[in-house]
């Protein structure tokens, strides 16, 4: 009846990051969780239209013949086997789960799915929706209008002109994985200066006053090649692409700062255009580019819109929610019931585990644990955290989307100077420059951070108040690049980035009570109303889903303690 019941990504079950396979485990979870079978399902919605995407692929290859034949030869067998005949493929897979499945399969356009995922769960009757990503079928950027239970795309920018692919190309050039390392580029940007911004604007992207743009394809290979950039791109910056193991230098940080600044300018110009040409005080955002929390904050702080809401699963995963809602409201003309709080339920939409299930798993792994009641688990964990220990925190329903929001989280004390380095290198096994986010009690936000960009989904950044910063020495003021990591710059150094920004998550008591109580107890002990909150996973692994995943991650990492619901485990006891 138009309510989002559950949502989960296949990678969390299969343990294959960005799993592209048929989501059999996710579907089985949804059925089991809601005590139904596939024969009870009337409709299945898919988030894009394969024929339109195939059309774009063929036209692109034909336009570049004979260049791109190697890429064409690689992709065609997959398309002809599965993707082109997606409806038949999906029907076969669904009937393998339940031979009595008689439902209909419907397809939504990619950017309509994104727009629906942002508008329909919001609390707005009317809104303009901006969606930006790499590419859908043809569209890479779209402006849509939503009213009640209707949604229409009004403006589009089409492939190959894509701000998402542009950012991914720079991700590739900097030696990070495409569709995975974009967060790293965003995190690296504050270490540099945007000295190459004008070079990018003069040569690579033709950006108009209304925010529309064209990407100069001379510098790229993503349409027909097996790599994102080419020799002309490297020649423009007078430097070859960084290999993944090569040392990061100031040049790379300046490149990151430059593409981040260009991206922000594109989004500001587009939202200026929306503000002037569309009659709405509400803006919704989705698509992979909407996960750029720094750019999101610039949009909010421009004060062009009274309200801005961002889909927490803004990437393609959220397209599943959007496709379902688009079918319900647009396709089937069903009434939309608008709730005062958004209907994503805090994005806590995945599996939950009962204590008896957990205990069975722990006993099977010969774990040494203590079972405590709710009050004891909160007080014990808060005390452990106040002593500088790190905790894997596993509670309630798994989050949907890329952010851990307090249910599948690694937690730590933000006041400890070395905590950022230790979490990155000893626990997450990832690059030392990566920043961490603070989860702070909503009522304490304005004392510590600029509250104008507050967000419960970790999709914006806020600036630390000046009275919480430390005075830098004369020598520290001269530091550059990764030297900046060594500066003890605030009262909460583990969550203060080099530009004093933080990707803040506000914790609401009614949205995640147990996490709220934990942070409040930590505040009672320490006076600090926040914790470091990062996703419960190791580098190149999905966020943990089950108690077994959590225990495995706990054993393989440098975590000191593990808390799964009411069970407390110390590493030294295992």
How far is it from the N-terminal to the C-terminal residue, by CA?
Answer: 47 Å
Compute the gyration radius: what is it?
24 Å
User: Biggest sheet: strands side by side, in what order?
Assistant: 10-19-18-11-12-17-13-16
Q: What's the overall average pLDDT, rounded?
A: 94
The fraction of residues assigned to DSSP E strands is 5-15%
Largest sheet: 8 strands, mixed
Coarse shape: globular
Please give the count of helices.
19
What class would the helix/strand composition place it in? alpha/beta
Number of strands: 19
Helical content band: 25-40%
Low-confidence spans: none
Q: What does the model show?
A:
The protein is an alpha/beta fold. Helix content is 36%, strand content 15%. The chain has 19 helices and 19 strands. The strands form five sheets. Strands 10-19-18-11-12-17-13-16 form an eight-stranded mixed sheet, sandwiched between helices. Strands 5-4-3-8-9 form a five-stranded mixed sheet. A hairpin with a 6-residue loop joins strand 3 and strand 4. Helix 15 crosses helix 18. The relative contact order is 0.12. The mean pLDDT is 94.
Question: Helices, strands, pairings?
Answer:
Layout: H1 10-14, H2 24-33, E1 43-46, H3 50-63, H4 69-83, H5 86-97, E2 104-107, H6 110-119, E3 126-132, E4 139-147, E5 150-158, H7 163-173, H8 182-188, H9 197-203, E6 205-207, E7 213-215, H10 231-236, H11 250-277, E8 282-286, H12 293-301, E9 307-310, H13 318-331, H14 355-364, E10 370-371, H15 374-386, E11 391-394, E12 408-412, H16 419-427, E13 437-441, H17 445-448, E14 462-463, E15 501-502, E16 505-507, H18 513-526, E17 530-535, H19 547-556, E18 561-564, E19 567-570
Parallel strand pairs: 1-2, 3-8, 8-9, 11-18, 13-16
Antiparallel strand pairs: 3-4, 4-5, 6-7, 10-19, 11-12, 12-17, 13-17, 14-15, 18-19
């Amino acid at each position: 009846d138009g309510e989002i019941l559950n949502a989960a990504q296949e990678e969390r079950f299969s343990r294959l990051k960005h799993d592209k396979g048929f989501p059999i485990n996710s579907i089985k979870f949804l059925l089991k969780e809601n005590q139904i079978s596939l024969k009870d399902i009337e409709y299945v919605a898919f988030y894009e239209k394969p024929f339109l995407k195939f059309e774009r692929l063929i036209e692109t290859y034909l336009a570049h013949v004979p260049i791109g034949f190697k890429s064409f030869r690689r992709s065609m067998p997959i398309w002809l086997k599965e993707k082109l005949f997606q409806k038949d493929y999906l029907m076969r897979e669904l009937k393998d789960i339940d031979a009595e499945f008689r439902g209909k399969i419907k397809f939504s356009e990619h950017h309509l799915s994104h727009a629906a995922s942002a508008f329909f769960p919001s609390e707005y009757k009317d809104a303009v929706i901006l969606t930006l990503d790499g590419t859908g079928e043809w569209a890479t950027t779209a402006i849509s209008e939503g009213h009640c239970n209707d949604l229409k795309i009004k403006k589009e920018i089409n492939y190959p002109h894509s701000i998402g692919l542009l950012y991914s190309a720079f991700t590739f050039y900097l030696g990070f994985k495409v569709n995975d390392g974009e967060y790293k580029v965003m995190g690296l940007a504050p270490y540099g200066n945007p000295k190459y911004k004008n070079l990018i604007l003069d040569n690579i992207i033709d950006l108009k006053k209304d925010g529309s743009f064209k990407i100069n394809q001379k510098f790229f290979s993503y349409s027909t090649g097996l790599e994102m950039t080419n020799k002309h791109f490297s020649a423009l910056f007078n430097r070859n692409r960084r290999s993944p193991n090569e040392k990061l230098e100031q040049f790379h940080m300046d490149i990151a700062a430059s593409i981040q600044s260009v991206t922000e300018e594109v989004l500001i110009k587009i939202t200026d255009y929306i503000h002037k040409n569309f009659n709405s005080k509400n803006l919704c955002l989705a698509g992979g580019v909407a996960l750029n929390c720094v750019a999101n904050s610039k949009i909010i702080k421009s004060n062009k819109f009274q309200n801005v809401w961002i889909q927490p699963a803004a990437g393609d995963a959220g397209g599943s929610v959007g496709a379902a809602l688009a079918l319900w409201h647009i396709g089937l003309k069903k009434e939309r019931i608008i709730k005062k709080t958004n209907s994503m339920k805090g994005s806590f939409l995945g599996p939950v585990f009962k204590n008896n299930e957990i205990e069975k798993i722990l006993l099977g792994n010969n774990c040494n644990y203590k079972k405590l009641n709710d009050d004891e688990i909160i007080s014990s964990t808060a005390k452990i955290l106040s002593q500088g220990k790190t905790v894997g925190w596993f509670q309630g329903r798994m989050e949907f989307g890329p952010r851990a929001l307090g249910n599948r989280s690694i937690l730590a004390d933000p006041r400890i100077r070395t905590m950022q380095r230790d979490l990155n290198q000893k626990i997450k096994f990832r690059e030392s420059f990566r920043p961490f986010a603070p989860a702070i009690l909503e009522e304490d936000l304005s004392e510590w951070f600029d509250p104008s960009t507050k967000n419960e989904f970790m999709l914006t950044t806020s600036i630390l108040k000046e009275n919480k910063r430390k005075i830098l020495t004369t020598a520290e003021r001269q530091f550059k690049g990764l030297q900046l990591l060594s500066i003890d710059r605030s009262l909460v150094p583990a969550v203060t980035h080099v530009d004093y920004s933080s990707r803040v998550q506000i914790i609401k008591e009614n949205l995640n009570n147990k996490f709220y109580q934990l942070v409040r107890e930590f505040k009672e002990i320490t006076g600090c109303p926040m914790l470091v909150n990062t996703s419960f996973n190791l580098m190149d692994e999905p966020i943990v889903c089950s108690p077994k995943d959590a225990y495995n991650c706990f054993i393989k990492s440098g975590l000191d303690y593990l808390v799964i619901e009411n069970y407390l485990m110390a590493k030294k006891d295992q």
